[in-house]
Amino acid sequence: GPAVTEARRPILVVGAGIAGVTAAVEAAEAGQDVVLVEREPSIGGRVLRNHQYFPKLCPPSCGMEINTRRLSKTPLVRALTRTELAGAERIEGGWRVTLLRRAEHVTAACTACGDCTKACPATVPDPFNLGLGRVPAIRLPHLDAWPRRYAMDRAACPAGCRACADACKVKGAIDLDARDREERLDVSAVVVATGWAP
Fold first, then answer.
1. Rounded to an integer, what distance in angstroms lies between the CA atom of residue 11 and that of residue 16?
2. pTM
3. Using an 8 Å Cβ cutoff, are 20 and 191 in contact?
4. 58 close to 160: Cβ distance less than 8 angstroms
5. What is the tens place of the pLDDT at every residue in 86-114?
6. CB neighbours (10 Å) of residue 159?
């Protein structure tokens, strides 16, 4: 009946910083399906940009590594990076949401070998370090990135440039023609953990 169908709907967690990741893994460990969305190419949010955090004053990568291990172990969390909540409407028993999935020019086939970065002629302000310094247009977002996959700022590529794709030895890892797309789904609840801006 309807109660069974609604019980099977996932919950949507918007934002994959420490709050969103914690909400997702705790819900999954309680048996709930979860769709975790993050607009950046990797999870972790602002906490990974800190030098040390309270109360242990340890590097944030330690705490996030525990959570990424928990995420990796559960089949109940579907983590979608480069994804934003584009719309939501109330329906009986929950929400009908529209997700904007940004073009993934580097696919899940990426092995993070680094050949593409070495070949890339373009640079961009480093988004991980708030624009301080420059980094190649295709790169690992940061040392502790999860998923461990390279990201590309396609708009920074010189016209007609295929240097990264030509350097990549993994078939299907780079898709220069990828496009944005929308995905709609019904969820039982929405957790908003969109964080803060410095």
1. 14
2. 0.89
3. yes
4. no
5. 999 999 999 999 999 999 999 999 999 99
6. 4
